[in-house]
Prior knowledge:
The protein folds into 2 domains: 1-83 and 160-223, P-loop containing nucleotide triphosphate hydrolases (Rossmann fold, 3-Layer(aba) Sandwich), CATH 3.40.50.300; 91-159, no CATH class. 35% of the residues lie in helices and 29% in strands. It has helices at 40-47, 74-81, 99-109, 115-128, 144-157, 174-189, 201-207; strands at residues 2-11, 14-24, 29-33, 55-60, 63-67, 70-71, 84-87, 162-166, 193-198, 210-215, 218-221. The two termini are 19 Å apart. Keywords: Amino-acid transport, ATP-binding, Cell membrane, Membrane, Nucleotide-binding, Transport.
Amino acid sequence: MIKVRNINKSFKGIQVLEDVSFDLEQGEILSIIGPSGAGKTTLLRTINALEKCDNGNIYIDDKCLCKDGEYIKGKELREIRRDLSFVFQSLNLFPHMTVMENISEAVINVLEVNKADALKKCAEILKNLGLEEKENSYPYELSGGQRQRVAIGRALAMEPKYICFDEPTSALDPSLTCEVANIIKGLAKDGIGILIITHDMEFVSKVSTRVLELGSGKVKVTN
Ligand SMILES: Nc1ncnc2c1ncn2[C@@H]1O[C@H](COP(=O)(O)OP(=O)(O)OP(=O)(O)O)[C@@H](O)[C@H]1O
Ligand SMILES: [Mg+2]
């Protein structure tokens, strides 16, 4: 379970996150919604230690990522990060790498799986995402929805316990949105905990098992 407890974050004296607390269990799809500027991306970044919250605690299963705003570092942080994958709005695909290279790079270099096994595992993921024919394509040769699926594949290849998505539908048309919704539901069925940060209410109602609202700092339960 990801446990976020009473986190606060200010930028230059302006409070963006105020006393935010929530839990995310494996197998559930939690959506956190809120207007532009409500602090959604900031919240996601604090869970990955890309941004430090000012105070509060964050636990990933039995491990403490952050206590009273103090984050763990080095090897311990790298270990916790293995359980979490992030799919950012900008996707952050490597433009000079093929689809297969994008997906397998961290499997080989971070998980230290040997290349042949990594390629086999990633080929299976590409097949499940309907991208088997795009293995050797570069990101610029793909549609927006295909790029989105590559980013999901790259997250999945790390075999995380949790995947956090920032605005997963922002580049997608309605039919692709439906496709990504089905992929996400399948991931949750496989026991992955999904955190979605978005303002796409239609998507939220399609996929979520729980919704929290982030507005004026506070998170409140809406269903
Ligand atoms: N590094 C930073 N330095 C200063 N202010 C920041 C920084 N990052 C975010 N902010 C401010 O914090 C507030 C929340 O930003 P954030 O990106 O988390 O919002 P959001 O809810 O994700 O919005 P959107 O829906 O537009 O993506 C904004 O007012 C933003 O300007
Ligand atoms: Mg954002």
